[in-house]
């Protein structure tokens, strides 16, 4: 497919399926072409996106009947609580890179550590210099993501009330402050290169462009509460390709969806008080939404991960949930979650000081 701009410049647009991802690639054909608007890219509700040259977008396309093995494999940690490079201390945030390397926010050790696939030890890639507010330090970080455009880590440095950027280049010894004076917990970035940040003190989510320190309110911001225009301690967030924002509204025990530009959100999971019924959540944390709007949420105090299809009144347990424990099919607090390009599920098991991988069956 060829798409022309107003200046008669054009690009070739290709899409194809690789494993469980739909992939889109814009190919530049003239030296002066910068970007274009593409409408209705695919029949799978990917309706509008602004692309830059060579910007590749992966969209997880999980089959409706997908199941995962019930016994997880430890992909990081699992050697008790500690600060050795084979240990974690109450990990929270999680990001899975394209090569299945797992990047973990090691909250209790004030560092970000990377585990490559099948490695027995991790490698510290940010912080790890003791607790503090120096640019070489972190203080109880909670989330991380990779900004592929700049090849850097974006980190919620929670107790320093800032968001920081660390280059992934070898030899990097300190970060730079991106946003200051914010009680950040969760991060998301979409293909428009907006950075979304959950502020669990102001009970809101804001989006920021590069260099913007004030941001634009996108959810909440009406003090804490359980109204549809309110949040109460938002934690992890997810932003889809239409810029709809999904929020783990932790202390309201629900997941909210805010359509782009909306003044109120929609409850898409939980919202029936704290409990362990299939209609309920208890302190939800990690969050993911696939291309058709199915929600995957870490139900932390119920020690399980749940799946809620679009419009469903109750969810289903996909892993965990039997009880708190340290067996391969158990969690002791399920935290952040993510998927790799093969559909394997990764879950932070924060009070077992490990990350578990559940293979797609």
From TrEMBL:
One Pfam family linked to the record: NHL
Family matches, as PROSITE patterns: NHL
Keyword terms of this UniProt record: Glycoprotein, Repeat, Signal
InterPro entries hit by this protein: 6-blade_b-propeller_TolB-like, NHL_repeat
Residue spans of the NHL repeats: 280-311
Gene Ontology CC terms: extracellular region
Superkingdom of this protein's organism: Eukaryota
Protein's name in the database: Uncharacterized protein
Species for this entry: Rotaria socialis
